[in-house]
Structures are given as structure tokens and as C-alpha cells.
Amino acid sequence: MSESTKLRFLSAWYCPFAQRLWIALLEKGIPFKYEETDLSNKTEEFLKLNPRGLVPVLVHDDKIIYESAVCVEYIDETWPQNPKIMMEQPYDKAQVRIWGDYATSKIIPLFYSILRSDPENLGETQKSFVENIGSFVKAMSPTGNFFMGDSFSFADIMVYPWMQRLEVLKHFKNFEIPSDIDWYPRFQKWLTACYERESVTPTIPDMKKLIPRHKRYVKTK
């Protein structure tokens, strides 16, 4: 059995949570077998792997792991070679975990809240979204391209897929992050660096196909 078949990555091309793990696998240079999953027609085999019916799912030999953040930590510990996504030093590791969790709990839910918001509530939701992104950006290292400076890490991976999808919010809600905010240049520097990262580029979906998939979240009245 080849090395790639020992590690199966069940994904869906449009899923930002699966994109997290995809980026991490490419960043680590780990051989794997990509398996596209039809989440609208879940098989019994897939539901046995993850009863929650979600991607990503990682199958490593006979071990099954799911939940994107857990999967990313798992591969970083199982394949400890550089680059270290979770960082080397305990304090740095704590920081990327703190801000990875912040992205998951304070930024990502508001992305979907904007799509679902009534017009009368949209402004307040957008304001909170911008403020929370600002808190994330202000916590970044002032030097280097990434959250931890020169090191591309767990913190970047946890939030980037949704920042790459800001075009979705522009399309449906005419939302853009104001360019006159003081932290905007640092945000753009980070966003560009992530977009151009070799481990990220192959995972970026076609926006023309991706945008229509978000219509189910949108509330217009």
C-alpha cells in the first residue's frame, strides 16, 4: 500500500472547514488520497466514518478523525517534521490556539450571520464582524506576512478560508471591509500572503461556482 493510500482525506471542494485541513496537509507535505464527498447524498460508508455527516474526515490506517481543528492538530503531531503548524514554543503554541479558537467562535459565525441577516439588522452584524476581524489583525505580529510573523501557522489556517470568501458577502450583501480602517493595510498584506502561499493556492475554489452555493444562507427580506 502506498503512503498516500494510508491517509485518506474526505472533503467537499466548496467546504471552508475541509479547506483548513487541505491547506495543512499540503503545508506539511504529507502524501494523502483526496476523496470528494457528495454531502447531498451521504453514503452509509461515509456516515460510519463520521456520524455527524460532515467533512473533513481523515482516515489514517484504521484511525478515524474528524472536526477540522482536531484534524490539523493531529497531523501536526503525527508528522512532527517542519513546518510546525502548531509552533514549537509553548507560548507560541498557546497563542495560535487562542486566536484559532477566536476565529472559530467570533469571526466565522458572523460571516454566516451577515448572509442570514434581515436588512434592518445587517448593519450591526457587519459592524461586529469588522470589529472582530480587527481584533484578530491587531493581535498579529507587526512584522512578517503571517499571524506569527514569518511562520504560517494554525491561526492563519483557521480563519483564511472565510476571508478568501469575502467576495461572497460582497455579492449577496454588498459588504466590504472599509479600506480606511487603520489595520486594513496589515490585513491586506496578510490576505495576499496567504493567497499566494504554495499550500493554499491549490485549495482555492472557483468563485463563480462557489458563490451560488451560498444562496441557501441568504435572507433578503
Provide the fold topology.
Elements: H1 3-6, E1 7-11, H2 16-28, E2 33-36, H3 44-49, E3 57-60, E4 63-66, H4 68-78, H5 90-116, H6 119-138, H7 154-164, H8 166-173, H9 184-196, H10 207-213
Parallel strand pairs: 1-2
Antiparallel strand pairs: 1-3, 3-4
Short description:
The protein is of the alpha+beta class and 221 residues long. The chain has helices spanning 3-6, 16-28, 44-49, 68-78, 90-116, 119-138, 154-164, 166-173, 184-196, 207-213, and strands at residues 7-11, 33-36, 57-60, 63-66.
By CATH, the topology of the largest domain is: Glutathione S-transferase Yfyf (Class Pi), Chain A, domain 2
CATH C-level class of the largest domain is Mainly Alpha
What characterizes the major β-sheet? 4 strands, mixed
Helix content: 40-55%
CATH architecture of the largest domain: Up-down Bundle
Question: What is the end-to-end distance?
Answer: 54 Å
Low-confidence stretches: none
What is the overall number of helices?
Answer: 10
Strand content: 5-15%
Read across the widest sheet, the strand sequence of neighbours is 2-1-3-4
Class by SSE composition: alpha+beta
List the quaternary state of the chains.
single chain
Basic shape: globular
Count of DSSP strands: 4
